Give the backbone structure.
Amino acid sequence: MNTGPVKGFAALKRMLWEENPVIGQILGICSALAVTNLVKNTLVMCLGLIFTLVMSCFTVSLMRNVIPRRVRMIIQVLIIAAYVIFIKIVLDAFLPEISNELGPYVGLIITNCIVMGRTEGYAMANKPVDSILDGIGAGIGYSLVLLPIAMIREPLGLGTFFGMQVIPADWTKWNMMVIAPSGFFALATYIWIVRALKSGREKR
Amino acid sequence: MSEKIKTLLFTIAVTALFTLLVSGINAALKDRIELNRSVARQRVILGLFGLITADRPIADSEIPAMFANQTEPVKFAGDVTLECYRRKNSAEKVFVFAFSGQGFWDNIVGFLAVDAQSMQIKGIEFTKHGETPGLGGRISEPEFKLRFKDKSFAAKRPDGLYLRMVAEGTVTRADEVDGITGATGTSSSLEKIVNRSLAHFASLNQGGNSN
């Protein structure tokens, strides 16, 4: 972790690569495993997380000087939960099919450690604008891991991409790629590759 | 002491504020969510009657009117539990009724379409299930649902079932349905659910319906 305060776009940028929440901090793993078997669901999940992060970080940052220290975590969870329930209700109302497919995972954004990590670790000590940028960065950083994994798992497991058939129907589907264990393999391989690239860069 | 009270009041105030926001949005969108749910159900039922096909898609907004015009609920004498529908003004004796039961993981819920004249299954749809994606979850694939089409439940088999799920690709008779390889749990749960639902329907249908 950097010691000095990181402001502005630097706060956004570092979340994409250097301090990517999934690769660097191994946060948000449960949802990374659960939703990445369909690109569409993954995209909605990522957008949901970005929205939650931005709104929670912004709200927490606005209130950072009035939240009593003792109850700060409770207040953060409350704020995060309120936004997540908001997403769930809006999805139910306007995108019922996707809401159905995502099932409990939308609600589980509340427990995604990335959100609380950013509100507690950044928004509590920084200005609203910086906190929003930090939230966007963390959300995009999360998406940068989930989307590629989904783009590999869905075609191999179901022969489709975004629900459209992309691989000929006589292709033997790898059922393995659709169920959770393959999420572990895909995620681990992805983290391995990215970390190898990272350490390669640092050596130079 | 006053610090504690301040903290308490602050927490209560913030909780009240966010609860108000969330319940406000919920209240504002409740009707729409309810409508979405009933449209989804009605779409499934209409689809089972063959009124919605891939080459004739129907917009969500038209579903409720179509459902009201084309179908009517059926009540059987001495039964209040079965949710059952038939076409209005149709000579066909096709019924669509709801079923549910314990699957491998979660409840499997859906609708069955049957022809009471020929005692054949016309179609099956699942509205909710929690089977393993890629394995038991394949029950919601069109190809699997077609396996039930035209299966007969006119008489019980020697083993007491109307239909038996057999190993994938080994169907030899009209009272057998291909199961799913790798999802034996789902297949046998579904076998139980379907047989129980068919038995329930057959017993009611024998008693005659009183509209």
Chain B touches chain A through 26 residues (CB under 8 Å). The helical segments of chain B are 2-48, 63-70, 142-146, 184-206.
